[in-house]
């Protein structure tokens, strides 16, 4: 497995603001703390804390928003410094980057020499007037595989060759990712990678499907992350050359989105998506080349955004109002591509991407409410009806919908997409089959199901009823049962005796024309969902 160096510069975003030693301030993003002043650090606030927890720690804490332009300047400053160590760094975001160790192993024969060079370079770097990166904010890890390298960086460790698997098994299962399957593993009591790798492969496949098998291979070190393939023949580069230097570059960059979209479509047509791109920019005063990574996959808009970020960083370095004369051109080269594994569903449950007015309205709402404040609901797989609704951030949804494959819609700019993505989810034993109910209840409501004789209907261990249901008593009244299906027995969490559950579901059609799913557990009946 390939070795990586992972670099994380903690609290780098705090250099965007000129805070004093006694200022108690924090930078907030997605309701989490991403930057802190020295006063806030001394008060016990830590990076990653939620806003409410940070305020409970320091009630006089002041919050500041992220500043994209200043962040672009800082990222450019750090990237230029790291280029002196190696030009092969790939940037995930402002604070995180990684380096394939094979790219520098001939020059830095010992990992310690490479780490010392990075620390020395960053410690001597002046981010802004009088502000430097503290050595304690620099976290570096080296290991086989990027996941292990990132985990090693939390403790500033160098994991020896062939020892990464043992190290990985001692870590929380969250190092493998952050999705529904990981959440489910934690709820099942599988808290470490070691617990996960000792599960039976057949159980993983049956319970968690394709995503579970992918995580299982990652946990065993059998799947490289990120996996890489070569770009398809004839593709891989997009270039733009200006007739004369351009100052208003944002409009020009976004006008080139169709060219980027064509290259993204070439990859998509063969089932691939780009996870790393190299952006080279030529201006009247300087040149810049930087590699960017996005493991969820680049589309044309996310590439354009990184061109803008890189240009903003270059522009911030130019002194004087007349010094910036514009850009001569840029080139995007696709470095790493992986197999594309699905897309998100539409906002409206229709077969086309969001209309332009909806896009404008959502972007406007996010401008007013803050970044990542607008979410899009989608259907996902789950055992319980209430858990089948998930939420995706609007920007992620919008970027993904803009890269969907074109359907047979003539000249329309909209794209076809499947409404329900549950077919690609793991199997969900005991889940309710389609069509989904119109209403589900977060808190199941108590009901009484009785037979013609007035006795409470009971389900035996073999899934049969001794007396058929005749009436259902709700909190709002009693209804007569016209017909029913079931019951169906459900056996959940059979592998964990402490949380194992057995219950049964019954579908009833009532005299008012409505249908309901009733659930019985320990002799009691509940209203779980309703069909209109």
The gist of it:
Helices cover 28% and strands 28% of the residues.
CATH T-level fold name of the largest domain: Alpha-Beta Plaits
- Which structural class fits the helix and strand makeup? alpha+beta
Gyration radius from CA atoms, angstroms: 28 Å
CATH architecture of the largest domain: 2-Layer Sandwich
Strand order of the largest sheet: 9-1-6-5-12-11-13-10
CATH class of the largest domain: Alpha Beta
Number of helices in the DSSP assignment: 14
Total strands: 21
Strand and helix map with partners:
Elements: E1 3-9, E2 25-29, E3 32-36, H1 38-42, H2 51-57, E4 62-64, H3 68-83, E5 90-91, E6 96-100, H4 111-123, E7 126-128, E8 131-132, E9 138-144, H5 146-153, H6 164-169, H7 180-187, H8 193-197, H9 201-219, E10 237-246, H10 249-255, H11 257-269, E11 272-283, E12 287-293, H12 300-316, E13 327-339, H13 356-369, E14 375-379, E15 389-393, H14 394-402, E16 439-450, E17 471-474, E18 477-492, E19 501-510, E20 515-521, E21 524-531
Helix pairs in contact: 3-12, 10-12, 11-12
């Amino acid at each position: 497995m390939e070795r990586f160096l992972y670099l994380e510069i903690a609290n780098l975003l705090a250099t965007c603001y000129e805070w004093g030693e006694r200022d108690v301030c924090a930078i907030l993003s997605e309701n989490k703390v991403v930057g802190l002043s020295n006063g806030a650090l001394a008060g016990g606030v830590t990076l990653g804390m939620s806003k409410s927890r940070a305020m409970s720690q320091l009630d006089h804490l002041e919050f500041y928003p992220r500043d994209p332009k200043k962040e672009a300047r800082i990222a450019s400053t750090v990237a230029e410094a790291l280029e002196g160590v190696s030009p092969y760094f790939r940037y995930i975001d402002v604070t995180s980057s990684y380096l394939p160790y094979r790219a520098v192993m001939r020059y830095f024969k010992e990992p310690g020499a490479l780490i010392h060079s990075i620390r020395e370079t960053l410690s001597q770097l002046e981010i802004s007037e009088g502000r430097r990166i503290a050595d304690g904010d620099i976290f570096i890890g080296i290991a086989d595989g990027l996941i292990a390298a990132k985990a090693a960086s939390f403790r500033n460790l160098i994991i020896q060759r062939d020892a990464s698997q043992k190290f990985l098994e001692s870590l929380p299962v969250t190092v493998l990712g952050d999705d529904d399957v990981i959440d489910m593993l934690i709820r099942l009591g599988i808290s470490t990678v070691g617990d996960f790798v000792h599960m039976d492969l057949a159980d993983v496949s049956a319970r968690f499907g394709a995503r579970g098998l992918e995580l299982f291979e990652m946990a065993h070190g059998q799947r490289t992350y990120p996996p890489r393939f070569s770009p398809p023949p004839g593709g891989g580069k997009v270039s733009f050359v200006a007739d004369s230097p351009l100052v208003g570059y944002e409009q020009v960059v976004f006008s080139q989105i169709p060219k980027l979209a064509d290259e993204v479509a070439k990859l998509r047509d063969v089932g691939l998506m780009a996870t790393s791109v190299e952006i080279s920019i030529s201006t009247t005063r300087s040149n810049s080349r930087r590699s960017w990574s996005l493991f969820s996959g680049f589309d044309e808009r996310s590439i354009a955004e990184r061109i803008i970020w890189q240009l903003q960083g270059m522009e911030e370095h130019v002194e004087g109002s007349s010094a910036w004369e514009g850009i001569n051109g840029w080139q995007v080269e696709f470095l790493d591509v992986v197999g594309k594994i699905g897309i998100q569903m539409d906002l409206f449950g229709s077969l086309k991407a969001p209309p332009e007015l909806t896009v404008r309205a959502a972007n406007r709402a996010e401008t007013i409410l803050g970044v990542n404040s607008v979410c899009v609901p989608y259907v996902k797989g789950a055992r319980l009806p209430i858990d089948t609704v998930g939420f995706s951030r609007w920007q992620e949804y919008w970027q993904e919908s803009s890269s969907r494959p074109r359907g047979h819609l003539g000249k329309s700019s909209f794209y076809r997409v499947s409404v329900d993505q549950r077919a690609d989810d793991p199997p969900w034993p005991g889940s309710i089959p389609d069509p989904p109910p119109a209403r589900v209840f977060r808190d199941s409501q108590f009901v009484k199901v009785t037979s013609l004789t007035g006795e409470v209907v009971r389900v035996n261990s073999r899934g049969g009823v001794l007396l058929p249901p005749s009436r259902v008593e709700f909190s709002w009244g009693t209804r007569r049962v016209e017909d029913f299906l079931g019951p169906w027995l459900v056996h959940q969490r059979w592998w964990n005796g402490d949380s194992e559950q057995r219950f049964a579901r019954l579908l009833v059609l009532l005299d008012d024309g409505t249908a309901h799913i009733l659930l019985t557990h320990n002799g009691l009946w509940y209203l779980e969902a309703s069909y209109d």
